[in-house]
Amino acid sequence: MDIARLLATYRDGLLEDTIPFWSRYSPDYEYGGFLTFLDRDGSVYGPEKPVWLQGRIAWVYSTLYNRVEKRTEWLELARHAVDFLLKHCFDADGRMFFLMTRDGRPLRKRRYVFSEVFAAMGLAEYAKASGEDRYRARAAEVFDLLLRYHRTPGMLEPKVNPQVQPSIGHTMPMILLCCTQTLRTVDDRPIYREVADESIELIFSKFCKPELRAVLEMVAPDGSIIDTPDGRTILPGHAIESAWFLMEEGRLRGDLELSMRAIPLLEWSLERGWDEEYGGLLYYVDLKGLPRPEYQWDMKLWWPHTEALYATLLAWHLTGEQRWADWHIRIHEYAYSHFPDPQHGEWFGYLHRDGTLANRCKGNCWKGPYHLARMQLYCWKLLEEATTSALLREN
Known about the structure:
This protein is mainly alpha-helical. 56% of the residues lie in helices and 8% in strands. The protein has two domains: 1-25 and 168-395, Alpha/alpha barrel (Glycosyltransferase), CATH 1.50.10.10; 27-157, Glycosyltransferase (Alpha/alpha barrel), CATH 1.50.10. It has a three-stranded antiparallel β-sheet. A three-stranded antiparallel β-sheet has the order 12-13-14. Strands 1-2 form a two-stranded antiparallel ribbon. Helix 1 (3-25) packs antiparallel against helix 12 (370-394) and helix 6 (171-183) packs parallel to helix 8.
């Protein structure tokens, strides 16, 4: 790999494109928080504010402040998201809403706790940036509440009748592992390590199927396969995220064995998800190769590609194996020839299977700066680390 060129691409893309785009068009200085329904040119086409994106944006700007440069602008933008979250986004029962009006009135509340997960992450990272302990304490409160709802049967409405078809999902252990990685940087509460350990065990023992070379999104409580379209679902983007969260967890713990255990998850997901005909990663895949019920199953979305870029780079860094460098370049060439908008900046989010543009928006209820900015930052910093390691070896 041309490390210098890649490093510059990720660093400059983050600092000169992605972050300036969102800093210019997204902040709502009249009502607080961030507007994320952005058209191609950054103009606002919808006034609603997704709560989970407010938490993600708080995390992004706080992380930039903590890891790149202590720019006052970034700290103020992080605070802008945090203030909106704390002022408007919590319901009387302690849970959070999912969608707000522009001026902070609740529109929707979901049966998931994703708003809470990303609020906890945003608050924790902001606590580190601001130096104010009250945000660390608030992050801990939000985490405890979401964990109680997640772990207590009946507190959240189930997706399907558990008496008829009991099941468990891959999404929560995956995202809880990521969440605790942020929380543990500001707080040494034992519950965070306990949840991380539990998440690791669940991912490997329930959702990973080595004999099938697959990571499933939903299984029976004992880990057995439910032979329905939902039970056969493989979501390559989620599986790839799990792989690098686990690799990163191994790095945090100094546990190379854990990192190495995660690499097959990445391998299986690329095998199953890569579209050999048109290139890029498919959104949904069936375990048996049967039809998918989702109409968007074969679309190419931005976020699985950003996750795959960091995951393959991390696998290369950990193993030194050329195949991961090759995969990284393959994904990089597809992503950078299809998603970036050369006219207005940032990335498009949604392509048809053949790579043609399906939607010109830059943001909506799901797409904000999070996945793209995180990938660019993490790839940039990992390549810096790789460069430093190489220089030390030479000397």
